[in-house]
Design a protein that fits this description.
The structure is a single chain. The protein is of the alpha/beta class. It has twelve helices and ten strands. Strands 1, 2, 3, 4, 5, 6, 7, 8, 9 and 10 form a ten-stranded mixed beta sheet that branches. Helix 2 crosses helix 10 and helix 4 (98-107) packs parallel to helix 12 (301-322).
């Protein structure tokens, strides 16, 4: 056997060994540059708050910068679609929630992305319930009384939302539909003007995320009638859940988490999911979420996918039944 043959065989074996180690080296190298998290809403809201908490802690966990990029427009469509079409290399992630991944498929006939096919869930970190508030001088003291009055007086009561197709609109419309009540919708451009008219007594009712609603309820500017989660919210322990009141079998908590574009390499997904799980399990982050009125979650991979799939199917059908259209 010649010397050249032996050298060639050794070179081939060395190449094969390097090829076998390449995926492991890629996983170890990731992330080698900053990772951006696209937030499909402006700074300051629930999306943005959760994204910045996760970006800070994921950056420390993975020894690399995680940068929040706000990309609002057309509700949550522009930012979400940009994330769906980003290079599947692990360097662009999406802050996903019920509104952009579960409700939008029912709102838009030609949605430019598919919530289930175009994204790989990394993990869900937190969920927030909504609180149904009444203006403080509304003589109806409970959700049962509101529904009974609305059935006897169709269209006499009204409710605010942050705009057609917003989470506040969809949740309230679903509740009235399931309860068989006729309550008029008054859409606003954002939550702030809706609050102004609720506090000013110009609208009767408003559903908003519980952490935001808490400020007005605790100040005595509005009265809490019910929360949308499956159980009472610790922030409002005396306020029943919608299901508990018996007026409708309705539950919704708005979860938030990180998603990667489909076709992101498996080794990168596994690294992201493992580090996300460590971040989400930290006592410090869970305490931060709890103090902010959230329910900490730590759902990664398939567990997160199951929740997303359930809510896409549930809310797509209900939104289409309600005939809700975006602005």
């Amino acid at each position: 056997m010649g010397t050249n043959y032996l050298l060639s065989r050794r070179a081939a074996l060395a190449f094969a060994a390097m090829a076998a180690l390449a995926p492991q080296a890629q996983a170890q190298a990731y992330p080698s540059k900053p990772v951006r998290i696209i937030v499909p809403q402006p700074p300051g809201g629930g999306f943005d708050t959760v994204a910045r908490l996760l970006a800070d802690r994921m950056g420390k966990q993975m020894n690399q910068s995680f940068i929040v990029e706000n990309k609002p427009g057309s509700g949550t469509l522009i930012g979400t679609d940009a994330a769906a079409k980003a290079a599947p290399d692990g360097y662009t992630l999406l802050l996903g929630s019920v509104s952009n991944l579960a409700i939008n498929p029912g709102l838009y006939a030609n949605l430019p992305y598919d919530s289930l096919r175009d994204f790989e869930p990394i993990g869900l970190a937190v969920s927030y319930s909504y609180t149904l508030m009444a203006r403080k001088d509304l003589p109806l003291k409970s959700l049962k009384e509101v529904i009974a009055y609305a059935k006897a007086n169709p269209g006499k009561l009204n409710y605010a939302s942050a705009g057609n197709g917003s989470g506040q609109h969809v949740l309230a419309a679903a509740l009235w539909h399931l309860a068989g009540a006729d309550i008029a919708h008054v859409p606003y451009r954002g939550a702030q003007p809706a609050y102004q008219d609720l506090l000013g007594g110009r609208v009767d009712l408003f559903f908003d995320l519980s952490p935001t609603a808490r400020v007005q309820v605790d100040a005595g500017n509005a009265r809490a009638l019910a929360v949308s989660g499956p159980a009472r919210n610790p922030m409002h322990p005396d306020v029943p859940s919608v299901s508990e009141t018996g007026v409708a079998a309705l539950e919704l908590e708005s979860w938030f988490g990180l998603f990667a574009p489909a076709r992101t390499p498996r080794d990168i997904l596994e690294r992201l999911r493992a580090d996300f799980a460590r971040v989400a399990a930290s006592a410090e982050l869970q305490e931060t979420f709890t103090k902010g009125g959230g329910k900490p979650l730590n759902l990664s991979g398939e567990a997160a996918r199951t929740v997303v799939k359930r809510d896409v199917e549930r809310w797509t059908g209900l939104v289409r039944t309600l005939g809700i259209k975006p602005e």
